[in-house]
Amino acid sequence: MIGNMLAKARKDKGMTKTDLAKVTDINIGHLTHIEKGERNPSHKALKVICKAIRNSLSTTYVYL
Question: What is the pLDDT at residue 34?
């Protein structure tokens, strides 16, 4: 659920997973697992990802 929302937000910003991995310093494989819903991001990772895609955490948590 959160992974789908993050993937959509990333795509809406025109970012690839490679772009996001570079900006967040999170391994692309880990990002892939998060977006597929296979792993849940830590609070810290979620905060970094949201900042990179310029999406507020409060908006993100609405979808949880």
Answer: 96
Distance, C-alpha 44 to centroid of its chain: 11
* 62 contact partners, CB below 8 Å, separation of at least 6: none
How many other C-beta atoms lie within 10 A of the C-beta of residue 38? 10
CB 20 within 8 A of CB 48: no
Token reading at 43: 């609070």
Residue 26, classed as helix, strand or coil, is: coil
Distance from C-alpha of 27 to C-alpha of 14, rounded to nearest angstrom: 19
Return averaged pLDDT per consecutive 10 residues of the chain, 64 residues in all: 90 93 96 96 93 71 52
Distance of CA 64 to the CA centre of its chain: 14
Q: Which two tokens stand for residue 7?
A: 């993937």
